[in-house]
Specification:
Layout: E1 8-12, H1 22-30, E2 33-39, H2 41-45, H3 48-69, E3 75-78, H4 81-92, E4 96-100, H5 105-118, E5 124-128, H6 150-160, H7 196-204, H8 210-222, H9 227-230, H10 243-248, H11 253-266, H12 271-293, H13 316-322, H14 329-341, H15 346-359, H16 364-374, H17 380-391, H18 406-413, H19 418-423, H20 433-440, H21 458-475
Parallel strand pairs: 1-2, 1-4, 2-3, 4-5
Helix pairs in contact: 4-5, 6-12, 7-20, 11-12, 12-17, 14-15, 14-20, 15-17, 16-17
The chain binds flavin-adenine dinucleotide (FAD).
C-alpha cells in the first residue's frame, strides 16, 4: 500500500465492468481509484438508442463501484478527453491514465490527443487489452495482412488461441477521496431525443449491467444445445442476447469464450451448439480486425469499384422502410422489433438490410445509419461490416445477385407466423402489447397507420435490382 501513488485514473470507454478488466487492475495498482467516463462529442453524436443504453450501463457500473468502494462511484464529466484528463492528472498527481483500448477510429484520434496533452505533464496514457479476443497483430496472413475472408480468419484465430481473462477486481476497492464533482447520473439525460421511445425501451429492453450479462450468459449456456439448429429462428428465443453487453464491455469476449469453452468440455451434448456460438463471436472479432485495418469501413465500400454503384439516396421507399410500413410483413415486423426493444434478430437484420439495398436499391450507408440510431447493441464494426456484407460490397460479402426473398424467409424461419404476429399489429389476429407499444415509441411527426397493409411488388423490384447490377458489372473496371 505504501508504495502506491496518490491516485489510479481509469478512463472508461467500452469496458463497463469489473471482471477481466486489466485497465482497472492497473489503475488500482497505481493508487486510490478514480474511474471517469467522459461524455465527449463522439458520445453525443452516437445514435439515440445506444446513448440511452449507455446511460443504463453507466448507472449499473456506478452502483457496483459504490458498493465496492463504500460510497465512491463513477465520475462522469462532459467535455473533450484531452482537456478533462489532464485536469484530473494535475489534481491527483497521477503519472498514468489507464484505458481498455476501444479501437474505434474516433477513439483512436481521442487517444492521440490525450497522449499529446499528457506528455507535458510527465504522464502517459496506457492502453490495455480486453475488448477483443486477441490482439489483431496475432492473426495475420502469411503476407502479414488482415484476413479478408471469414473462414481462414476463424481458422487462424483458433490456431493462435484466445487470450485468457485477467483476474477479477478485488471485492473491496480504495477510492480516490477527493474527486471533483461530476454530473449526477440519475439526472443525466443522455438521450433526450428518444421522446416516447425511452419509455418503451424501458419496458421492453433487456436488463443492463455486468451482473445481467453474466446471468444472461449462464442462462444461455444452460440451453445452448439447440443454438445450432434454432439460431436463425426469430420466433424462438434461441440466441444469447449478449450483443449489447459485449458492445458496452459489460462482459468481455474473452470471458464469454472461456466460460463457453469450459461448458462445452464438461457437457458433450452442447458441443455443436456452443461451437456454433463461438464461431459467431469470431464474426464480431473479424469485424473489428477489418475495421482496425480499414477505418473507413463505416463510410466507404471495402471494394472500391462499388463506389460507382448507382445507389438511390433518400427516397420515399426508404422512409417507409424506416417507419416499418413497407407492406412486407417480415421486414416491418423486424423494424418494429428494433424500435420497441433496441434489438433485432440477426436473420431479420439480414432480410431488412437485403430488402433495402437490393429490392429498394438504396445506399447501405442510409440503412447503417438508421440502425446506428436505433440499436441498443450498436457496434460500429459489426454494423458496418454486416451492412457491407449484405449489400455485396464488403470483403467476403454475399454476392449482390443473391437476393433474399422476404416471404420465403418468413415461411422458412417464422413458420407459424408467431414472430410477425408478435410485432405487427394488424397482421393476423389480436395485436400484442409489444405490437401496440410500437406506436407509443414514434415521434409525433411520423404518421404511421395502425391499419397495416400488405404490399406486393417483390418480383418486379428483384428484377430491377438484378438489371441494375448487370449494368453496373458491365461498366465496372475488371479486376
Ligand atoms: C445489417 C446488420 C447489422 C448489424 N449490426 C450490429 C450491431 O450494430 N451490433 C452488433 O453487436 N451486432 C450487429 N449485427 C450482428 C448480429 O445481428 C447481432 O450481433 C446479433 O443479432 C445479436 O444477438 P445475440 O447477442 O443474441 O447473438 P448470438 O447469436 O447469441 O451471437 C453471439 C454474439 O456473437 C456476435 N455476433 C453474432 N452474429 C454476428 C454477426 N453477424 N456479426 C458480428 N458479430 C456477430 C455478437 O457479439 C453476439 O452477441 C448486425 C447484423 C446485420 C445483418
Amino acid at each position: 500500500m505504501t508504495s502506491k501513488g496518490k491516485a489510479g485514473i481509469l478512463w472508461l470507454a467500452r469496458d463497463l465492468r469489473l471482471s477481466d478488466n486489466p485497465a482497472l487492475r492497473a489503475a488500482i495498482d497505481d493508487g486510490p481509484l478514480l474511474a471517469v467516463f467522459v461524455i465527449d462529442g463522439q458520445v453525443e453524436r452516437q445514435g439515440a438508442a445506444s446513448r440511452w443504453r449507455l446511460q443504463r450501463g453507466l448507472c449499473s457500473l456506478d452502483a457496483e463501484l459504490r458498493r465496492r468502494t463504500r460510497g465512491s462511484g463513477l465520475l462522469v464529466l462532459r467535455g473533450e478527453a484531452e482537456q478533462v484528463l489532464p485536469d484530473l492528472v494535475r489534481l491527483t498527481g497521477a503519472k498514468s491514465v489507464h484505458q481498455s483500448d476501444w479501437p474505434a477510429p474516433g477513439m483512436r484520434d481521442a487517444q492521440d490527443r490525450v497522449r499529446n496533452a499528457l506528455t507535458p505533464l510527465g504522464a502517459r496514457l496506457i492502453l490495455h487489452p480486453g475488448f477483443l479476443l486477441t490482439h489483431p497483430g496475432n492473426v495475420r496472413t502469411a503476407q502479414g495482412g488482415v484476413y479478408r475472408v471469414y473462414t481462414p480468419f476463424a481458422r487462424a484465430l483458433r490456431a493462435v488461441g484466445v487470450d485468457r481473462p485477467a483476474a477479477a477486481a478485488p471485492e473491496a476497492i480504495v477510492a480516490f477521496s477527493k474527486p471533483p464533482s461530476g454530473l449526477a447520473l440519475a439526472e443525466l439525460q443522455l438521450a433526450p431525443d428518444m421522446h416516447g421511445g425511452a419509455e418503451v425501451l424501458e419496458r421492453f429492453a433487456l436488463p443492463a449491467g455486468e451482473a445481467a450479462a453474466f446471468a444472461r450468459l449462464d442462462e444461455f449456456l444452460d440451453h445452448a444445445t439447440s443454438y445450432d439448429a434454432d439460431r436463425d429462428r426469430p420466433d424462438l428465443d434461441a440466441t444469447s442476447g449478449l450483443s449489447e453487453h459485449l458492445a458496452l464491455g459489460e462482459i468481455s469476449p474473452r470471458t464469454v469464450w472461456a466460460m463457453a469453452r469450459d461448458r462445452m468440455e464438461r457437457e458433450a451434448s452442447k458441443a455443436d451448439g456452443i461451437g456454433k456460438f463461438l464461431s459467431e463471436l469470431i464474426w464480431r472479432e473479424f469485424a473489428w480486425h477489418l475495421f482496425i485495418d480499414f477505418p473507413q469501413m463505416d463510410r466507404s465500400p471495402w471494394r472500391s469499384e462499388w463506389s460507382a454503384f448507382p445507389w438511390r439516396r433518400s427516397n420515399t421507399s426508404l422512409e417507409r422502410w424506416t417507419r416499418a410500413e413497407t407492406g412486407i410483413a417480415l421486414v416491418d415486423a423486424g423494424m418494429r422489433e428494433m424500435r420497441v426493444t433496441g434489438r433485432m434478430h440477426n436473420r431479420v437484420r439480414m432480410v431488412v438490410a437485403s430488402y433495402l439495398t437490393k429490392h429498394l436499391l438504396t445506399d447501405w450507408r442510409l440503412g447503417m445509419s438508421h440502425f446506428a440510431e436505433s440499436l441498443t447493441d450498436w457496434d460500429p464494426a459489426s454494423n458496418a461490416m454486416n451492412w457491407q456484407w449484405v449489400a455485396g460490397c464488403g470483403p467476403d460479402a454475399s454476392p449482390f445477385f443473391r437476393i433474399f426473398n422476404p416471404e420465403k424467409q418468413a415461411t422458412q424461419y417464422d413458420p407459424q407466423g408467431s414472430y410477425r404476429r408478435r410485432w405487427l399489429a394488424g397482421w393476423m389476429g389480436k395485436p400484442t402489447d409489444e405490437a401496440m407499444a410500437y406506436f407509443d415509441s414514434l415521434p409525433s411527426s411520423w404518421q404511421v397507420s395502425r391499419d397495416w397493409r400488405e404490399r406486393g411488388g417483390l418480383d418486379e423490384a428483384r428484377k430491377q435490382a438484378l438489371a441494375a447490377f448487370e449494368e453496373f458489372k458491365e461498366g465496372a473496371p475488371r479486376r
